[in-house]
Specification:
It is a single chain. The protein has 472 residues and is an alpha+beta fold. The protein is built from 16 helices and 18 strands. The strands form 4 sheets. The protein has a 7-stranded antiparallel β-sheet with strand order 15-12-14-13-17-18-16, with helices on both faces. A 5-stranded antiparallel β-sheet has the order 5-6-10-8-9. Helix 9 crosses helix 12. The protein folds into 4 domains: 110 residues, Uridine Diphospho-n-acetylenolpyruvylglucosamine Reductase, domain 2 (2-Layer Sandwich), CATH 3.30.43; 118 residues, 2-Layer Sandwich (Uridine Diphospho-n-acetylenolpyruvylglucosamine Reductase, domain 3); 111 residues, 2-Layer Sandwich (Alpha-Beta Plaits); 84 residues, Alpha-Beta Plaits (2-Layer Sandwich), CATH 3.30.70. GO terms for molecular function: FAD binding; oxidoreductase activity.
Length: 472
């Protein structure tokens, strides 16, 4: 079904609809329409996909979300949920206008259950707020996506990963229960505080990663762990990326599994140095592995990192820099954390390839991106998670005119997603499909798989009102 046909099936928001929303919210300072809507609501961090909603509601409760969703269902008005808008695939852009429900003001931490090791939060709580709160209580929420100002519901909707996924897993592994408003406006609770659950289909795991197309998360119960007491990082220079990446499977097999295994190339480090205005501990090599270890005792951590350091040196590492002070840790990880912002600051516009490939094919894919730079005469930068094969590759517009940019970008994207398929990879490791990556998902999955996905969407949302035009 094309966009024009879909658009004709939806009701255009009028003053009667806005008056109903105002009657639900009872606060005209949380409802915006016409020229009062901030332009930020038309896009996410991707920037290239834009569309203004017809009305924006800053919700404060599940009841408000439910009533607005029910009204939309009865009147065939599309609804787009939104958190902080930090996504990179246009998933929170209201492609068909309609109502946008901004959940960022639903930002209360509701309960810390230290007996069950769970934290219950509203959808708008920021990732950095969760980390700070639980660590103050000697607990640990392991998922660690790079964008710390993302909301927890945004993380849940994209099944965000991050650097600690090697040892601890991704967001899905830490979601115990959800309260969800369905497209019909009905409210369901799925999962809970139980550790094990084999009670029918796992609807919770369907909602996680569904990018707001199946339901609106209004409450989440998260699994916590005891806070590790000791942390040490290793910065390990290699003569080239191939040698660095070839070492990763041996690190994983050693059973001394690091919390994080990141790969970096010199150009990303130099860009971060310039952006931050401070020096990285070493920038003389072409390629680096950055590893982090955690544990409860110094002896446990030392035993693990010494074993891994030996493996790296045996496999061609030039040196091993041990970061065992707060200052050294900050110097290394602040640079790694600034890679995306540094790349963004160096260009006029960019788009991202968030592919994931088998761990032993990472170097091959990165080498291919260098070939793409030459073939298409366009600047490309990359870094990523060597431990799980998730690469972040950025295609940069620089001084290209709009028409040339679109042509080159599409050509690069086509080539790179084809290469990912050849290497038995997937379209997205953690940022999702949204609107921007739909064509590549359609190319990478079989018709049968796509039909099942569309059937799931239809079962939850028969009128295709919730975040239409996204994923599948």
């Amino acid at each position: 079904m094309n966009n024009t046909v879909l658009q004709s099936n939806y009701k255009i928001v009028d003053m009667k609809d806005i008056e109903y929303i105002l009657s639900v919210v009872k606060d005209d300072e949380r409802v915006f329409y016409g020229e009062t809507i901030n332009e930020d609501y038309s896009h996410d961090e991707l920037g290239g996909v834009k569309k203004m909603p017809e009305v924006v509601v800053q919700a404060l409760s599940t009841e408000e979300v439910s009533k607005i969703m029910k009204y939309s269902y009865e009147n065939k008005i599309p609804v787009t949920p939104r958190g902080s808008g930090t996504g990179l695939v246009g998933a929170s852009v209201p492609i068909y206008g309609g109502i946008m429900i901004d959940l960022s003001k639903m930002n209360n931490i509701l309960e810390l259950d230290e007996e069950n090791l769970t934290l219950t939060v509203e959808p708008g709580v920021l990732l950095m707020e969760i980390g700070k709160f639980v660590e103050e209580n000697d607990l640990f929420y392991p998922p660690d996506p790079g964008e710390k100002t993302a909301t927890i519901a945004g993380n849940i909707n994209t099944n965000a990963g991050g650097m600690r996924a090697v040892k601890y897993g991704v967001t899905r592994d830490y979601v115990r229960g959800l309260e969800v408003v369905l497209p019909s406006g009905e409210v369901i609770e799925i999962g809970g505080k139980v550790v094990k659950n084999s009670s029918g289909y796992s609807l919770k795991d369907l909602i996680v990663g569904s990018e707001g197309t199946l339901g609106i998360v209004t409450k989440a119960t998260l699994k916590l762990l005891p806070l590790p007491k000791k942390f040490v990082s290793l910065l390990i220079p290699f003569p080239d990326l191939q040698k660095a990446i070839d070492t990763v499977p041996q690190i994983i097999k050693s059973k001394s599994i690091p919390t994080a295994i990141e790969f970096m190339q010199r150009e990303a480090i130099v860009a971060a140095e310039e952006f931050l205005g401070k020096k990285f501990p070493d920038n003389s090599s072409d390629a680096y592995l950055l590893l982090k270890f955690d544990g409860n005792t110094t002896e446990e951590v030392e035993k693990n990192y010494e074993k891994v350091a030996d493996i790296c040196l045996e496999n061609g590492a030039l040196d091993v820099y041990i970061s065992n002070t707060a200052e050294r840790e900050e110097a290394i990880w602040s640079a790694r954390g600034a890679f995306l912002e540094a790349i963004k600051a160096s260009t006029t516009e960019m788009d991202e390839v968030d592919v994931v490939v088998p761990r032993n094919r990472v170097a091959e894919f990165v080498k291919y991106t260098h070939e793409m730079e030459e073939k298409h005469d366009i600047r490309i930068r990359s870094f990523g998670h060597a431990g799980d094969g998730n690469l972040h590759i950025y295609v940069l517009k620089d001084a290209l005119d709009e028409e040339t940019w679109k042509l080159k970008l599409n050509a690069v994207m086509d080539d790179m997603y084809k290469k990912a398929r050849v290497l038995k990879g997937q379209v997205s490791g953690e940022h999702g499909i949204g609107f921007a990556k739909k064509p590549y998902l359609n190319q990478s999955l079989s018709p049968e798989t796509l039909a099942i996905m569309r059937g799931i969407k239809l079962a939850f949302d028969p009128h295709n009102l919730l975040n239409p035009g996204k994923v599948c």
